[in-house]
Design brief:
globular, OB fold (Dihydrolipoamide Acetyltransferase, E2P), 3 domains, five-stranded mixed beta barrel, Ribonucleotide Reductase Protein R1, domain 1, Rossmann fold, 13 strands, single chain
Length: about 300
C-alpha cells in the first residue's frame, strides 16, 4: 500500500511514540525514522513535521521543520510562552530555579509569565515586586479557590491565545490544578503534597499539547526538581548578562570594560545593588549562574 505524506504538529511524545495532529484536526501515531537517531535528533512536542503513513499502519516522521527554539527540560520545541507556576508557600519558591528558567526562556526568545499559586496562604508581595521590576509578567492564583482570580485567569488565556504555551513548575506547586482552572475542559490528574516531605507526587509523566482553539496549543510538562542549564548547554557565559535585563541595564554604564559585575569595587551594577535598584536574590542568581558557566569547557558543549 502506498504511503501518503502529511503535515502536522507533534502534540504528544512518550517512549519514542509520537502523536501528530494533522491540519484537518485528526491525528496519527508515528515513530521517527532511524535517520533522526543517527543524527542525534529527537522529535519534540511542538515540532512541525512531515510524516508518511498508510491506512491502518503506524506512521513515520520523515522531516522536522526548522525550529524557532527548543528546550530539554521540559523537552519541547517552538515555544512562544512559558508559564512558570510557583507557590507562595508549601513548597516555598526556589528563586534560583525560577531565575534559571527565566534566563533560558529569555535566551530562546520565549515570553515568560510567572503564576504565583497558593496566593491565599503566603505573602507573595515581594515576588511581585522583584519580578515585575525585572520586566516579567506576574499574576496571582489560588487554584483551590479561584473565585476572585477571574482577572488572572483571563490574563493567562489572552496571553496564550494563538501561541504554543507550556506550563511548568516544581512538584507540588499546583501546576495541573492551575491548568484545570484556566482550561476546565482539560480535567488533568492532580496530586497531593506529601505531608511528610513537603514535595508533590509527579502526576504528569508525558509531554502533551492540548489544542484550545485555532492555532492555540497549551502544553503540560512533567514537574521538575532541578534544572541544569549548564549541562543542557542552553545558556553560556557570553549571553548570560542579556538574560538578566534588570542587571544588564546597569552594566551598560559600567566604567570597567571587562567587568564581571559580580563583586568589583566601583562597578555600576554593584552600586545599583547597594542602592536597592537590583534585587539581591536576582543578583545572587546571576552570580551563581556566572560561576557555573565559567567552569564549562568548550568540549563540554
Amino acid at each position: 500500500m502506498e504511503n501518503i505524506s502529511h503535515e502536522g504538529i507533534i502534540i504528544k511524545s512518550t517512549g519514542g511514540l509520537y502523536t501528530v495532529e494533522k491540519d484537518d484536526g485528526t491525528s496519527e501515531e508515528c515513530r521517527a525514522k532511524g535517520a533522526f537517531r543517527h543524527s542525534k535528533i529527537t522529535p519534540l512536542a511542538g515540532d512541525r513535521v512531515t510524516f508518511e503513513c498508510a491506512d491502518g499502519k503506524e506512521g513515520f516522521i520523515t522531516k522536522i521543520r526548522e525550529r524557532k527554539n527548543s528546550l530539554i527540560r521540559p523537552a519541547v520545541a517552538n515555544v512562544d510562552l512559558l508559564c512558570v507556576v510557583i507557590a507562595s508557600r508549601n513548597p516555598d519558591p526556589d528563586l534560583f530555579i525560577l531565575d534559571k528558567l527565566c534566563a533560558v526562556a529569555k535566551n530562546n526568545g520565549i515570553e515568560v509569565l510567572i503564576i504565583v499559586n497558593k496566593d491565599d496562604i503566603g505573602d507573595s508581595e515581594e515576588i511581585f515586586e522583584v519580578y515585575e521590576k525585572a520586566g516579567f509578567m506576574v499574576v496571582p492564583m489560588c487554584a483551590t479557590d479561584p473565585d476572585g482570580y477571574e482577572k488572572s485567569i483571563e490574563t493567562i488565556r489572552n496571553l496564550a491565545r494563538n501561541k504554543i504555551s507550556f506550563f511548568t513548575g516544581a512538584s507540588g506547586v499546583g501546576k495541573s490544578s492551575v491548568l484545570n482552572v484556566v482550561y476546565p475542559e482539560l480535567c488533568l490528574e492532580t496530586g497531593e503534597i506529601s505531608k511528610k516531605i513537603r514535595r508533590g507526587k509527579h502526576t504528569t509523566r508525558v509531554t502533551t499539547l492540548f489544542k484550545m482553539g485555532e492555532d492555540t496549543y497549551v502544553g503540560d510538562t512533567p514537574g521538575f526538581s532541578s534544572f541544569d542549564v549548564v549541562g543542557f548547554s542552553m545558556l553560556d557565559s557570553e549571553v548570560l548578562l542579556s538574560c538578566f535585563p534588570d542587571i544588564e541595564k546597569h552594566a551598560l554604564d559600567c566604567k570597567y570594560k571587562k567587568c564581571t559585575h559580580i563583586c568589583e569595587d566601583g562597578c555600576n551594577v554593584m552600586k545599583a545593588l547597594a542602592n536597592g535598584e537590583i534585587s539581591p536574590s536576582r543578583h545572587e542568581s546571576y552570580k551563581q549562574l556566572f560561576n557555573e558557566l565559567k567552569e564549562v569547557k568548550p568540549w563540554d558543549n
